[in-house]
Amino acid sequence: MNEKFYDLKKEKQDRIINGALKIFALNGYKHASTDDIIAEARISKGLLFHYFGSKIGLYEFLFGYASRFAVVELRSGVSRSERDYFEIQRRITASEAALEVQYPYITMFLDSVLRETCEEALSAIADSRTLVALCYEELLSAADLTLFQNEDDADKLTQIISYTKQGLLRAHLGDPLYRPKDMEDEIDNLLDFLRAHFFARES
Asked: Is 3-198 CATH 1.10.357.10?
């Protein structure tokens, strides 16, 4: 990646990043079109390749940028001393919403990376592909699971919450009135429901 990319105005950097995040998130690496990316970013194809060299160069840069940005936000947003599973999930959701204010498709993109099957893309990010997933695991590993009726329920709930977020994002991102806070509120309501049904007792 050409370091002069960072000499661009922040607004233009974010247009390029957001355009690429959206197209890769919605289509995966193989089916993501650079024509669609430059249309979203409102730049020329020549400029895109000037800064990133190739489609794979852009993808590698984008994953590194998005994963580092996400890990910093998640770790700063969730207290290491928090032990309540649902509060940890609540803080994770708030951190994701903060990320999505600036980069609406960032969490969807990072999730798509875990399901990526293209060997070219996987090879480019092999050393750090699970960086964000490991951060989530680290944050959730601090949770006290003794209040669950069955401790295995926490894994099931984590999947339910993740799938719900993915579905809500896909449903809402096309709505011009959508705000990340809207999904945060929906997930908060879901967490309240799940707490009431999965905790055997409260201390």
From this structure: yes
Residue type present at position 105: Y
Is the Cβ–Cβ distance between 147 and 95 less than 8 Å? no
Query: What is the model's pTM?
Result: 0.90
SS3 126: coil
Q: Are 116 and 122 in contact (CB under 8 A)?
A: yes
What are the sequence ranges of the domains in the chain?
A: 3-198
Tokens (6 digits) for 200: 């055997």
Each residue's pLDDT tens digit, 113-158: 999 999 999 999 998 999 999 999 999 999 998 888 777 888 889 9
Residue 113 backbone zone (phi > 0: left; psi -120 to 50: alpha; other: beta): alpha
